[in-house]
User: Fold Sulfatase N-terminal domain-containing protein from Phaedon cochleariae.
Amino acid sequence: MLTAGILFHTFIMLMANTMAHPNFVLIITDDQDLLLDGLVPMKNTLKLIANEGKTFQNAFVNTPICCPSRSTILTGKYAHNTGVTNNTVSGNCSSKYWQEQHEPSSIAALLKNSSGYLNFYAGKYLNRYGFDDVGGTKHIPKGYDWWIGLKGNSRYYNYTLSVNGTAVSHNADYLTDVLAAHSLDFLENRAPDKPFFMTIAPPAPHAPFTPAKRHENAFPGTKALRTPSFNETPSDKHWLVGMTPTTLPANVTILDGIQQGRLESLLAVDELVKGIITKLKDSDVLDNTYIIFTSDNGFHIGQFTQPWDKRQPYETDIRIPFLISGPKIPKRTLTKYPVSAVDIAPTILDLADVNIPSSMDGKSFKSQLFSSAEIPTNDFIFVEYWGEGAPKTIDARCPWKGDDELSECSLDQWCKCQDSRNNTYSCIIELTQSQQMKFCEFEDEQAFRETYDLMIDPYELKNLAYELSEDVVRRYQDIVRKFKTCQGRNCYTLE
Ligand SMILES: *[C@@H]1O[C@H](CO)[C@@H](O)[C@H](O)[C@H]1NC(C)=O
Ligand SMILES: *[C@@H]1O[C@H](CO)[C@@H](O)[C@H](O)[C@H]1NC(C)=O
Ligand SMILES: *[C@@H]1O[C@H](CO)[C@@H](O)[C@H](O)[C@H]1NC(C)=O
Ligand SMILES: *[C@@H]1O[C@H](CO)[C@@H](O)[C@H](O)[C@H]1NC(C)=O
Ligand SMILES: *[C@@H]1O[C@H](CO)[C@@H](O)[C@H](O)[C@H]1NC(C)=O
Ligand SMILES: *[C@@H]1O[C@H](CO)[C@@H](O)[C@H](O)[C@H]1NC(C)=O
Ligand SMILES: *[C@@H]1O[C@H](CO)[C@@H](O)[C@H](O)[C@H]1NC(C)=O
Assistant:
């Protein structure tokens, strides 16, 4: 009787456990924009996630560059608290400090520690992951049971994966397809009694913008989007954007080709999404699985005469796709509720009923998921960026050769640099029902400011910073200053 009682009790516990703990699939693409048609090729993704759930129309990253942004997604902490400020080890990208200080409290590690989640990761992790100076491909971040980590930055062919700590090189296999195969393998062979958390991080549509062979020329004649800001003279923008040339050349075939490659490279991601969701459905777990689709930052192509990159505070670079479906989320809903990358980790923990550590800077938006009503908002999004100087990335044929205050200056970008040390800035976006104001301040010799009224000027054509009253400027500066040093729960209430 006693044994039966204990067994019954265990059974009830197991049932409760299964019901209380949903599964998660988090898909993070690389450099996928929202505003330059980045979601247009994703027909299956829109049908299977957006139409089955909720689209957050005001979703942002807190820093528009891969490694720092991914570190924020994984930890729920702003870059000033992860210490990850750029894509190099000296900027704490995948550094020993990161491994010791932050990996033990990533979403995966916390889900495992509190609720025994089975954790899977496949794809690009952090740009410096897998190199010898940070432990090589043997290193498996704490908390993962099934680890398929890409060594280094995004590639499509000729790359090395750490498969559970063993280096496996591929030459001719298209990475997105290899990640899809590993994901299906996991879903087929995982221990079925445990809740799971999968992160899948495909390389698309990052440079070199290579589609799978079967998708080459799927979108012939595609042109870079001629937004109202395309080739717009940057007369009221900060120093870097105002650098010469301030008009794009007549022949921008290269920009059009990049747009085409980006859209085509996303088709394999769209197939990956479809494959995973089909498998979840066939395994009868789709109903208990939250699926989140997003990107690590946006992208610009030709806006304000900038060639192509991210790293700027403009909407093209900081706005990202954000789709979520799952248990009890109403179908086909849109919301303007503002969310940012830092909120992803606390929201996942909240949905899993796991305690959110007080050291997390982000806020759970769980309560916004289940309502189909539009909720009034009054919130700030915070964005910070540290400009880079890297003489190695300056083409020797450009006039700025060797300047260690500049970086990413190439001949095919007409020597217009994509970054500089003084491209260091912090911004807030104030989002209420009646206004959307962006305020940015640069740490350059001019303490340059940019302000846009996004409600009436979504393309950021007119910088209002020097027309604001002193009081308004002071209020914004004060909020920015508080965000820059905020930590944990004190990032919630800054006014
Ligand atoms: C990493 O960040 C921490 C905290 O910001 C800092 O103390 C440390 O010096 C950084 N490490 C490197 C290698 O820059
Ligand atoms: C893991 O869980 C234990 C006990 O529940 C707790 O004491 C510890 O702080 C947790 N570790 C982390 C990194 O959250
Ligand atoms: C990775 O390790 C897990 C846990 O040990 C194992 O179940 C899985 O089969 C391994 N995956 C691969 C691709 O080797
Ligand atoms: C991959 O590497 C092989 C051998 O070094 C080379 O022949 C091939 O062109 C490379 N493929 C790509 C797409 O770079
Ligand atoms: C435009 O530039 C591309 C190289 O970027 C070149 O292949 C093409 O021939 C040029 N087109 C014209 C019309 O000059
Ligand atoms: C990355 O950040 C570190 C720490 O702030 C800095 O020393 C380094 O110069 C930065 N790298 C680049 C390329 O700017
Ligand atoms: C930004 O840095 C560049 C490169 O050192 C310099 O030429 C320029 O004057 C600086 N601009 C401002 C506004 O600080």
About this structure: The chain is about 25% helix and 20% strand.
